[in-house]
Design a protein that fits this description.
Blueprint (H helix, E strand, L loop, with lengths): L7 H17 L7 E2 L11 E2 L4 E6 L6 H15 L3 E6 L10 E5 L18 E5 H18 L6 H5 L2
Parallel strand pairs: 3-4
Antiparallel strand pairs: 1-2, 4-5, 5-6
Length: 155
């Protein structure tokens, strides 16, 4: 969290994390900002089953770095899914950038041996929220079933 302890910048970062949580709550009422947890950060958004959300609201976009950070936080939280939301200046939160690893959508197999090699898909937050709902529903609906082992193994 680059904005911790810098007054006005910190409040912008906090608002940047609060707006997406507010946007997600109609679908996940338990969604909340996660408290900082030191060097084993588990993402900015908690309360979505098996999922870690990371939010960035910075002037300089460092996409590759943030994607890796999001994957690390997913591993720290022992979550199945992760997403990255990046604030787009002057746009409604529903139009912010939403990034999701393609393997979580079943669009690529797990040929890579390291999550850092995962490819990501970008969409607006509105579509991303709906896609995430579908992915979580599919995984949780079929996880006890043997025919769904491919979905849960690649998550």
């Amino acid at each position: 969290h680059d904005d911790v302890g810098h007054g006005r910048v910190a409040s912008k970062g906090s608002k940047g994390e609060t707006d997406p949580v507010t946007y997600l709550r109609p679908y996940w009422p338990t969604a909340e900002r996660r408290a900082l947890s030191g060097n084993k950060d588990k993402g900015d958004i908690a309360g979505i089953p098996g999922t870690v959300g990371e939010v960035k609201a910075a002037v300089k976009v460092e996409l590759a770095k943030w994607q890796q950070e999001t994957l690390t936080e997913m591993e720290n939280a022992k979550a199945l899914h992760c997403f990255l939301v990046i604030k787009v200046p002057y746009k409604n939160v529903s139009k912010w950038d939403f990034w999701l690893p393609a393997y979580q959508l079943g669009l690529e197999d797990m040929r890579f041996s390291d999550l850092k090699e995962a490819r990501w898909m970008r969409m607006d937050f509105e579509l991303g929220r709906d896609v995430l709902r579908a992915v979580i529903s599919a995984v949780h609906a079929c996880s006890p079933s043997p025919q769904c082992s491919r979905i849960t193994a690649s998550s």
